[in-house]
Fold this sequence. Notes:
By secondary structure, this protein is α/β, with parallel strands linked by helices. The protein contains 10 helices and 9 strands.
Amino acid sequence: MDNKVDIIIEARLGSKRLPNKHLLEINGNKIIEILIERLKKVKTANKIIIATTKKLEDEQFKAIANKHKINIYRGSENNVFNRVLSAGLKFNSNIICRVTGDCPLIDPSLIDDLVKKFNKNEKINYANNIYGLPNGMASEVFYLKTLIKAKKFKLNAHDKEHVTLFLRRNPKKFNIFLDKAKRKNYFPELNITLDEHQDFKLIKKIYLILLKKNKNFKCHEIVSLVKKNINLLKINEKIDRKDYFLEELYGIKN
């Protein structure tokens, strides 16, 4: 059985807080393209799939997918659970790595580490590495068959929106592995997920500084940079992220 993962990127242009955020550019590269190029460095990846909506505005992702020679699936806007499940079914996925399009600085090596830990124990149904990492650096790994099993239960609106929430809320039904960040990567106070314009300002600063040294910079380099330049945290510290409350979304407290 293939133990490599199909990476599914959730992305849509209709964000209420920052419309068209995936198309914002740094050095002539769109945010979504920066993410795609970083994900291509994941050694345990089999395919990369953009899972977007059927809305007319999201037609633009087709050209991006073609340019970067990756796959695309278009499905429900609000039922993201079904969108990801259907993408996995269409491309015959076995193991899925879920990444949101809001995380352009994600570290490919962290995904590889999580996939390897997931594959070490066949009893694990779901794994994430959210604990202790900067917000915007985490990923999730699970079997397609795990989503198929979850679909048989009654999913509420939150379950359909957040895809793996039902799994995490039901540890008696699913075997869950929660990885913890290494000390060098530990910085939960840092938010580098793209929700609002101030996030873009911070992401752009970090990207341009580290790009000069190493285009494949890792999480610990971001952490080190911000800790040495702590004023960077002030750029987006006032953003309200109640929608991303970790205890609800991941079943843990950071």
